Amino acid sequence: MALLKMGIGDDGRLLAALPDLGFRGVVIEGMGAGHVPEALAEIVSALVERIPVVLASRTETGPVLSRTYGYPGGEIDLLARGALSAGILSGVKARLLLQILLRAGIDSMAYGAYFADPGSPGSAP
To answer: Is the model's pTM score more than 0.85?
Structure first.
């Protein structure tokens, strides 16, 4: 399981290589409330076709936004491309949850409910 912290100017080479390096999932710690450089948006699209991708905030506190920035690489765009929001979880906590889900053999189509904020509609028990 990979945990990558994004920064301005990141070219995405490591992110794109993850599946071929044997990683079964990735948590991306995006800038601010969950953003990556525009050049990485297409890489995220390609990744979600191969492995689970979870978007967390690198600030380590506060949620990933969901309706604020729609530009390529913004959280609206990345979520529309199939990345899952870590919600209020830090990158480390989101990585642990993703690792548990993978090892438990839970269908990846159900992962979103586990990352939903507690008490929100659709959150897992």
So the answer is: yes
